[in-house]
Specification:
The protein is globular and about 70 Å long. With 626 residues, it is of the alpha+beta class. The longest helix has 27 residues. The strands form 3 sheets. The protein has a 6-stranded antiparallel sheet with strand order 2-3-1-9-8-10, covered by helices on one side. Strands 4-5-6-7-11-12 form a 6-stranded antiparallel sheet, covered by helices on one side. 45% of the residues lie in helices and 15% in strands.
Length: 626
């Protein structure tokens, strides 16, 4: 796990003080790699690679980057982990490759130099990398199929620049400058900025499972090496018995955990008290992990989550650490936390605190249960969305009369969402927007300020966001409803928000987070077959029921509880002024209407809006102001 950055000048050497540029990029990413740094500059001066190292596999000098093939043709900077690097290494050796280190970086470098983009789908892991071919004079960048590792690209007429964090491009002057209206609009609709959009004009986030290549002769190529959506269509999927299905999935889960424990340093576990993280502890002990350390964050007077986590730690004999957070601490540190975001999001603060606690113990890598709800059907959306679609189809021509009546039975803050769904064509995407969206499109139109509402800006921003939604949310073929929900949750909420938040907040403390439930081998074992055994989604029976070492009953029986700090409660006290100030900053900048802060705050106070609305607008206001 590392921080990478670089620039390729299209015509001539990189201008200016190149050592100073390298130092600026390295310093901007220093938190991502506290164990070492490296730079490489092409002999003719037109390429600069910068690397900051967090040493996990082969922590000695053999794993240092930038790394070069023996003949000097290929050069790579790589952020992430290749969990099947030993198998790939053996395959490459059988074809004549000879290695000089024990690192996964060298395996990836030889894989790409020998097989090109065709071999990227063979990689099991999380990665973002850039590779320079000195013979073809081309730059190749790629990102793992789920988007676990970020990569930002600024490709202009003079140069192509890339970095693990957008902030590195901005501080170095290689990209960014103006706020993107499309990025702001996307945030208002979804609570994060989905790729390839970013909050800065002229900078893109490379989409998951894709690669891009630029040649200095002006040619540019792009492609998809793995489309995560292909795991969900029904196709010719065989329907096995529940017993046969579970007998296949249980070992697959343990194998994914085993693969994600590959490291030359100790690996811990984020333990929240829920089924997902508890299952990771159970599987880790099943596959032989010794001296396992677990970490839990609690807050205020809420102790049930901490108690359940402690019971799991006790059952499996881990060395357990607990951190308690209070609102005064959060309010005091929020400006520093938001400065680490790199991209606005309505989430992430909880990840900052748990990552800091883990890093303070000296642990460099941890497992997280992120992705468990998407994989095993844990979200309410897996039942709500199919039911809503079925109800609308059942009502048929009576829907215009029945739909509004049903909406009157809902709580006030949900009625606008129901009206939106009732007025649409009944597609699953629109149902998902109602379930997961931040503000609905009609609400955004009423909320938007002059900086967003200017006619040409608005039209262009809406078109860009709609294009991204189509690319992210469209299926590849026919799906069962529950499989479609899994795809939507994985593509947008997990891929565009949770994974990015987890990366940037953990790497702010030099901590690597691994996600065994976000693994293509495992996903393909679970979906789409889980859609035909929907009873296994209840209480995540498919996961909890296939563990070799069961979890405590109190953990299995407890209703799902998101790992979120109690902002709603805190906003009624000392966090309130901070939130209101952030919304005013967003309004003063013209992104939302002048009266929007008061309207949104009042709606939350009377129970007509969820606390995440004023909180999210506040985060965006403070973030853009910084």
């Amino acid at each position: 796990m590392c921080g990478i950055a670089g620039v390729v000048q299209r015509d001539g050497p990189v201008p200016g003080d190149v050592p100073a540029l390298a130092a600026t990029l390295g310093q901007a990413l220093a938190h991502r790699g506290p164990d070492g740094s490296g730079t490489w500059r092409a002999p003719d001066g037109n390429v600069l690679f910068v690397h900051r190292r967090l040493a996990i596999i082969d922590p000695g000098p053999g794993g240092e980057q930038p790394m070069t093939t023996p003949g000097g043709r290929f050069h790579i900077v790589f952020n992430g982990e290749v969990y099947n690097y030993r198998a790939l290494r053996a395959d490459l050796q059988s074809h004549g490759e000879r290695f000089v280190s024990g690192s996964d970086t060298e395996v990836l470098l030889r894989l790409v130099s020998r097989g090109g983009t065709a071999r990227l789908s063979d990689v099991r892991g999380m990665f973002a990398f850039a590779c320079w071919d000195a013979v073809e004079r081309s730059l190749l960048v790629a990102r793992d199929r789920f988007g676990i590792k970020p990569l930002y690209v600024a490709a202009g007429p003079g140069h192509i620049a890339f970095a693990s964090e957008l902030g590195a491009l901005r501080v170095s002057g290689l990209g960014g400058g103006e706020t993107s209206a499309a990025g702001v609009l996307a945030f208002l609709e979804w609570g994060s900025v989905p790729p390839p959009l970013t909050w800065q004009r002229g900078v893109e986030m490379l989409e998951p499972g894709t690669w891009r290549r630029w040649r200095l002769d002006g040619r540019e190529e792009r492609g998809v090496f793995a489309d995560a959506r292909t795991a969900y269509p029904s196709g010719a999927q065989r329907h096995r018995s529940v017993a046969a299905f579970c007998a296949d999935v249980g070992p697959a889960v343990r194998e994914s955990v085993r693969a994600h424990l590959v490291a030359d340093v100790p690996v811990g576990v984020f333990l929240s008290g829920g089924i997902d993280s508890g299952a990771l502890v159970s599987c880790a002990t099943s596959v032989g992990a010794a001296n396992l350390q677990t970490f839990t964050v609690g807050f205020d007077d809420v102790s049930s989550e901490v108690d359940r986590a402690r019971s799991v730690a006790t059952l499996f004999g881990t060395t357990h650490h607990e951190l308690h957070v209070n609102p005064s601490e959060v309010v005091r540190e929020l400006p520093a936390v938001l400065a680490r975001l790199d991209s606005p999001t309505i989430d992430a603060v909880n990840s900052f605190y748990v990552a800091r606690a883990v890093a303070a113990t000296g642990i460099k890598a941890v497992l997280s249960g992120a992705g468990g709800d998407e994989l095993f059907g844990g979200y309410p959306s897996f039942t709500r969305l199919p039911r809503a679609i079925a109800a609308k189809q059942l009502a048929g021509p009576l829907w215009p009369a029945v739909g509004p009546v049903a909406g009157m039975l809902l709580p006030g803050r949900l009625r606008a969402r129901w009206r939106h769904f009732a007025s649409t064509n009944g597609s699953l995407v629109e149902a998902y927007r109602v379930q997961r969206g931040f503000f609905l499109p009609e609400e955004v139109a009423a909320l938007a300020g002059p900086a967003l509402r200017e006619a040409s800006i608005w039209r262009d921003a809406v078109a860009q966001v709609q294009d991204v939604e189509r690319a992210l949310l469209s299926p590849t073929s026919v799906e069962e409803p529950q499989a479609a929900v899994a795809r939507l949750e994985s593509r947008l909420y997990l891929g565009s928000q949770l994974l990015r938040d987890l990366d940037v907040m953990s790497m702010a403390h030099g901590l690597e987070v691994r996600v065994p439930f976000v693994d293509h081998d495992l996903v393909e074992r679970v979906w789409p077959e889980l859609a035909f055994h929907r009873e296994l989604m209840i209480g995540k029976r498919l996961l909890a029921g296939t563990l070799e070492r069961p979890l405590p009953d109190a953990v299995i029986r407890h209703p799902k509880q998101g790992f979120t700090l109690p902002f709603g409660r805190w906003m009624g006290g000392e966090l309130g002024p901070f939130v209101q100030d952030g919304m005013r900053r967003l309004s003063d900048a013209g992104w939302i209407a002048a009266d929007a802060p008061d309207r949104v705050w009042a709606a939350w106070r009377r129970g007509a809006a969820h606390w995440s609305r004023p909180w999210g607008l506040s985060v965006l206001g403070h973030f853009l102001n910084q």
